Amino acid sequence: MAPKVLIVLSSHNQLGNTGKPTGWFLPEFAHPYYKLEGKADITVVSPKGGEAPLDPASVEMSKEDSESMRFLKEKEALWKNTQKLSDYLGKADQFAAIFFVGGHGPMFDLATDAQSQQLIREFYEKSKVVSAVCHGPAALTNVKLSDGSYLVSGQEVTGFSNSEEDAMSLSSAMPFMLETQLGANGGKFVKANDWASKVVTSGKGNKLITGQNPASAGPIGEAILAAM
């Protein structure tokens, strides 16, 4: 039987106070999805359920990315009909992995979502793969384990770096800086050069897997597959 993977999308669609839309980032769902397709049974959830907002900027940026364009055209049902994240509390035993797609959305909802944090704790403490790419690690940043320690404390982690956020001129729109907050909660933040691929495995059984940026989306899909 194929291992089951829970993929989590943000439900948040406003980019801070900029008046611009946001959400989840197209290639960061598309590339891992195609690495897992046919090898894993995938369930897609979001905090609110229903349609999870796709960041229109990510569609524009991915015009030359044929895999993302194919995903956009063929896989709409995956994000138009998400299950409610809260329905999967207590069900970590049924899954091999949980994966958080990036985009700026998670910085605003998943970073502080108590049910998401509980879900991550359940997966991690049952030795399941806990993974996230780009801004997806925002969901991991504030998670506390049953002993009260931060999930990321003492672990090598990566995510969208401060210099990458600055290069996008979006730091001022963020509720916090991901690299800074991961470090503040005890994470050992590691990174490649801006926009270069970087995937880091650490944690219990090397099952805490994080990717730095959009270029890390395909590689993190492969890392999740290998870790399951």
Task: Provide a compact summary of the structure.
The chain is α/β, with parallel strands linked by helices and 228 residues long. It has helices at residues 26-36, 56-61, 66-74, 76-80, 105-108, 114-125, 138-141, 162-167, 178-184, 217-227; strands at 4-8, 41-46, 83-84, 97-100, 129-133, 156-157, 188-189, 199-202, 208-211. The strands form two sheets. A seven-stranded mixed beta sheet has the order 3-2-1-4-5-9-8. A two-stranded parallel sheet has the order 6-7.
Break the fold down into its secondary structure elements and pairings.
Blueprint: E1 4-8, H1 26-36, E2 41-46, H2 56-61, H3 66-74, H4 76-80, E3 83-84, E4 97-100, H5 105-108, H6 114-125, E5 129-133, H7 138-141, E6 156-157, H8 162-167, H9 178-184, E7 188-189, E8 199-202, E9 208-211, H10 217-227
Parallel strand pairs: 1-2, 1-4, 2-3, 4-5, 5-9, 6-7
Antiparallel strand pairs: 8-9
Helix pairs in contact: 1-3, 1-10
Helical percentage: 25-40%
Shape: globular
Strand order, main sheet: write it out: 3-2-1-4-5-9-8
Q: What is the rounded distance between the termini?
A: 13 Å
- In the predicted model, the low-confidence regions spanning at least 5 consecutive residues are none
How much of the polypeptide forms β-strand, as a percent range?
5-15%
Total strand count, please? Answer: 9
Major sheet attributes: 7 strands, mixed
Mean pLDDT level: 98
Radius of gyration, in Å, reads: 16 Å
Determine the structural class based on helices, strands and strand pairing: alpha/beta
Describe this structure in words.
Helix 1 (26-36) links the parallel strand 1 (4-8) and strand 2 (41-46). The protein contains 10 helices and 9 strands. Helices cover 33% and strands 15% of the residues. The protein has 228 residues and is α/β, with parallel strands linked by helices. The model has no long low-confidence stretch (mean pLDDT 98). The chain starts with a strand and ends with a helix. It has a 7-stranded mixed β-sheet. The chain has a two-stranded parallel ribbon with strand order 6-7.
